[in-house]
Specification:
- The structure is a single chain.
- The protein is of the alpha+beta class and 452 residues long.
- It has one domain: Orthogonal Bundle (Cytochrome p450), CATH 1.10.630.10.
- The chain is 46% helix and 8% strand.
- The protein has 15 helices and nine strands.
- A four-stranded mixed β-sheet has the order 1-2-7-4.
- Strand 1 and strand 2 form a beta hairpin.
- Helix 4 packs antiparallel against helix 5, helix 6 packs across helix 8 and helix 11 packs across helix 13.
- The longest helix is centred in the middle third of the chain and has 23 residues.
- It is globular.
- It binds protoporphyrin IX containing FE.
- The site of protoporphyrin IX containing FE (HEM) has 26 residues, from helix 10, helix 11 and helix 15.
Amino acid sequence: RRPKNFPPGPSTLPMLGNLHNLSLDNPLRDFERLRKKYGNVYSLYLGSKPMVMLCGVQAIKEALVNKGLEFAGRPRTLILADYGPKWKEHRRFALTTLRNFGLGKQSMEDRILGELQYIIADLENSIGSTLCPQVMFHNASSNIICQVLFGMRFDYNNWTMKEIVRCFTENAKLANGPWAMLYDSVPMIRHLPLPFNKAFTNIAICQGIAVPWINDHKKTRVPGQPRDFVDCYLDEMEKRRKDPSTTFSEDVLSMYSLDLHFAGTDTTSNTLLTAAFCSSERCQEEIDRVLEERDKACFEDRHNMPYVQAVIHEMQRVANTVPLSVFHNTTKDTEVMGYTIPKGTLIIPNLSSVLSEEGQWKFTHGFHPENFLNDQGDFVKPEAFMPFSAGPRMCLGEGLARMELFLITVTLLRKFRFIWPEDAGEPDYTPVYGVTLTPKPYRMKVQLREAS
Ligand code: HEM
């Protein structure tokens, strides 16, 4: 039985709770069906553990923004830290460090533009034939964040690179799956040989790769002259050495850099993968007009490219890359939309429900850049645009991601034309479910624009 004034939901079965109400492949449709039946705030039981689903702008903003700290916890599933001093100190440090490395400034742009040269080379090698952009975009996104963290990049066919990307993509599929949901709620399943346990093997593999890189930094760094995020962290650890309450340590560094590397890879690349479907001649005209003879774009150009901006934002809306955000936990007894939510309740902010919420968009279905343009053709961002979530736990890499999406889209559309191969049949837009939604693997034909 649900506690008094707890959000409503379907009746439960012993042991299973509501698991039988959810499809193992893709529970998003079930969540939408339940929203229609029970409203924007409803509850489900994963085994015996309650969870609350938040749908729509109003409920999500009330919880994640207005009552941000009360909803800022994390369940102890995979890697991201729960709410507390460790999360606070590390989040503050990471935001400042990323900013100092030029988030929004020249040097971060240089890193992205530098990586773009390798993407361009890959695409040029595929002119006239077809290419699977999945691997290329994953490698590029991984390299960009890898350079920020560790100061290095890898060739796209390098074994280490392939192994990291394999672990990340596999974990992205396991992380929000039903087993992951159960993992937090039914401790005894942790000892069973379940598919979800593979996620921990993958984390161990990635740590096994990253720890020697960190050790190498310890040997080669010059204190006070950081080359990358890891150097900055080691400097900070040194500074806090005598502080008994510090949460900075080498163990945390290896986990934290893994969090950032993972969070910055599968998200950006899956958004770009959806983007490759959406290129348009109108974008290309705007890009040509603004860049004129210049050989590369810069992030500032976005202010003169309202249509491109609208396309990129619409592509994020449609891509719905992180449909259920990352799960939250309540840090104290609280309320949302008049319902009572006890401390320690699993919270799922259903971002998918906001990105396609009736009444929030000019066009809810299909791909319409007009959702982000006013009558004068200026770029506008509706309140319901929340692919990075909202509140104190919102995406830490939003700045980097927005810069990547803009520079990569503009540079590639300026140079190439992407065509759906005639013999490939109709594109299948059904995404593959996970913490990130992934388009089914596909191939694109690539042409140089000048040549066409
Ligand atoms: C298009 C690309 C991206 C999308 C759509 C995206 C989306 C999200 C979402 C929805 C969350 C969950 C927020 C919440 O729990 O309320 C999140 C968290 C996070 N993201 Fe991103 N993200 C993207 C790119 C990146 C990049 C490039 C980085 C790397 C710097 C990154 C680092 C993180 C981290 C560290 C968190 C956890 C924040 C915390 O727990 O405090 N993300 N992201």
